[in-house]
Amino acid sequence: MLNYETHEYDVLVIGAGGAGLRAAIEAAATRLSVGLVCKSLLGKAHTVMAEGGIAAALANVDQRDDWKVHFTDTMRGGQYVNNWRMAELHAKEAPACVRELEAWGALFDRTQDGRILQRNFGGHKYPRLAHVGDRTGLEMIRTLQDHGIHQGIEVHMECTVVTLLQDDGRVVGAFGYDRERGRFRVFRAKAVILATGGVGRAYKITSNSWEYTGDGHSLAYHAGADLMDMEFVQFHPTGMVWPPSVRGILVTEGVRGEGGVLRNREGRRFMFDDIPELYRNQTSDNEEEGWRYTQGDPDARRPPELLTRDHVARCIVREIKEGRGSPHDGVFLDIAWIKERLPTAEDHIRRKLPSMYHQFKQLAGIDITKEAMEVGPTTHYVMGGIRVDADTQMSNVPGLFAAGECAAGLHGANRLGGNSLSDLLVFGKRAGRYAAEFAAEHGAGTIDEAQIESTATWALRYFESNGSAPTEAENPYRVQADLQDMMQDLVGIVRTESDLRKGVEALRDLAGRAQRVTVPGNREYNAGWHTALDLRHLLTVSEAIALAALERKESRGAHFREDYPDKDENEARENIIVRKGPDGEMQVTREALPATRSDLQTVIEEMQ
Amino acid sequence: MVMATFKLWRGDRDAGRFEDYQTDITEGMVVLDAVHQIQAEQAQDLAVRWNCKAGKCGSCSAEVNGSPKLMCMTRCSDIPLDKPVSIEPMKAFPLIKDLVTDVSWNFQVKKRIKPFKPRQPDADDGTWRMAQADIDRVQEFRKCIECFLCQDVCHVLREHQMHDAFIGPRFFVYGASLEMHPLDIENRLGDLKDSDGIGYCNITKCCTKVCPEDITITDNAIIPLKERVVDEFYDPLQKLFRIFRPRG
Amino acid sequence: MAQAELTLKQHGFGQTRRRDLWWLQPLAVFAGLSTFVIYTTWAAFQGEYYAFGPYLSPLYSPELFGESSHSWFGAKPSWWPAVLPWSPAFLILWAPGGFRLTCYYYRGAYYKAFWADPPSCAVAEPRHRYLGENSFPLILQNIHRYFLYLALLFVVVLAYDVWNALWFTDAATGATSFGIGIGTLVLAANVVFLGGYTLGCHSLRHLVGGIRDRLSASPARLKAYNCVGCLNRRHMLWAWMSLCWVGFSDVYVRLCAMGIWTDLRIL
To answer: What is the ipTM of this complex?
Structure first.
């Protein structure tokens, strides 16, 4: 008989980043019992890494801003494969969500008249990002955490979910283990919200931490939920490239928002060389105008450095490929140059970008107020994820909700900076509300003991001591590293049919190797074992990304196919859906994009 | 590339010892990279907490050569590698395994502190007006990443184990961020004096020295709170003033 | 939470795995403060050679009762018990002494250097029992702001001494004329350092503005708060500079008064 602890809740939230916390707070407000499970300690989730700000059309800095402009910016940035309803809800509800944070104690930087200050960011027409220096994510997660702990939510820290439990198709709980002792836990719940974040650990160069192994995507997939748009993986244009051990660590877009410019080895601002048609009207064609924009001139157009992330990343890759990169295979990001314009530039930089200053000083020995940084693209975010209903955030599996990065739809083919934090708030809140509603309307389901038993057996077979160690035992860290190398090379920023096919093939091989993984030691805080268990999730999402990328035969947003370098409007009418087939194999299908509501279509056309 | 020796603490609640591991150090490596390399190649079941690896989440706190530090922000080139480098877990908290300690006490303490309570909104739309000058002070405290290094180094917790009577520097910073918040109207001074034990702090400033976010914990958070406690409980003149002018 | 069994607790005074020279700073503080306390005690007990012409040693200022021309209220009072040794310094030295003794910077410094509580950061201590400033006697440290009020008066008095040090009396004619000697500069520097130290006091920072959460509403207080805050950031430096300079000022006046050193007139 398997030994496990059981916890019972009305609503179970998996993941305690911005979306998970916001969902838990909302669900707890209905007086239902709420459990919150997270892989790390509370308050350490990747939300803390968000630097730039929260996009919301508060119109505190530029009064011309409103939800329609934000909606249009989001749709344009996502190259119109976004779910229009989500984009609408997001643009409309984000301002209230930001004000709510302030009511819970968040302290955003202020305007002269004491309101929330907003800054410029890539793809946003007006200054729109509520921020706190360059540590907005920390402010947000700490506010939610400090508010959340007084709402009666039961938190299970350092606890990992291995599988979702189902009763006749409906999700009725989750099964996992606590990291500390390795004891199994069963969480029974009437509704489950996934808020597990992204998949960045599938790549070698990433800004994501060890946690981002696509758990939510994989859990939902194996429970029968559809995954959508998985080919759209955002590579943030500016990650650190040197020294090697910090490669991938994020350099906030805020650097460019404050006037930082990208230059190649020859000192040329190469971003002026290639401005896409969609943005030509909004982009400045000279340095002077770009500078005025960053200084808040409402009549100036944005500098090309603040074009969308997919485009900037591709331009950087082009410079590097054509031999104009910096010494360590990146390009130069220069904020120090603003001292030509601002007498107090050094103070200004340290004040507006304190953690960037700190990060480069400490990790690379570079003073960004004096020297240029070296940057290159890094895996940052996945636009794709669990397909959900726009209003309720419920997936196609009853009782299973998803919010934040692990849900798909809002960002389309490319996410605008700042839209992720507002996404977490708006849809975290919605998921919490509707999951609570679902829980109130449904009784507790039945837990399948056999499912628990088989999962536990699977989880424990990784231990060497179980005696079943195959002859060619694999090291879990090695398999993970090989997977990351492979994804980086074959399913990275620039993709081709042959590479992707090789990638799919390689994944089969890696899956085989993952079967042979063994770990030493016992179940107590055994990082090797945790890595081994996460491999299944990584393999699942990697396969979904590779297959979806093969299927989309065009280049759009973050998905760039060298063999189909142009946009194809026929392709753009469909979402690519990945689901588990009856045979257990991954199926890829296409579904037509829902038609945009006519009034919103008019809004989009008016703002062209 | 140099070969360096690391003495890692291996053990659990019951017993433990230092074990030597040798690994290659390449340019720019931080201590956490070295620990990961050892974990992947020589000690797969080594327990170590980490997340962002960029000094923003405060997970990888440990003691490197006896000094409390974030492993991800400690460059190998800044420590002498000619002698073995010792890496051990924080000492103010019970050990779970290897480099991981049970920091749950901190989460319990935070829950005990009275939450943020804002005044009535200033504007009809339910929003407030705040001057940047008034929030500068509080924003410093809100930089805290909860790495608990200040708790670890504070001798009241580390040496005297007064976890029941003293909440530690982290939570004075938290308390200060609430008490000095321009919108907050809650009064926590009684708690600070009694249950939080602010009087146990003897201003040795070790917390300030180890803070990876450079928060001036002692001078900007703890001492101003001590002064506010003096106002409320020890200063007869202030008490007299308060009769004529209520606290604002 | 019962914390009885911290698995890795360091035992034994001075035990640490720190490799740097952690003992250097507390040792320097110990040496510096000891030297100062021993010297000032000795100097206070002298009761002579504390004034020279227009100069008055800061250790003796204000000279409430005393034999020099700087005395405010005349010679040694008759009520002073005969069994006690007499020095004009005894009447006043407790005030600046108390200010420094209860100063937030010095407290932390001497707890470490003199009590080893702790000897240095992350270094094990000799005693298990710990009361901190939570109960008697150290709870009395909270009196600091009252010493601040006195210390501010002392800065004014010492500034007045500098004014006095600008007026030299000709021994032959008895006429008084304006002048500046090295001693004047020494005393002036003393006021600057003491001012920097006193005006950077944590209690003062609190009283001028820190007490308020919304300072921007009163710009003058905000300005004062920022100024005090600016000095406060270097409080330790001001503390040491002023401490050394007070001692040096006394030495200077004393050497002049004893005839060992000749004060130079600049003007």
So the answer is: 0.96
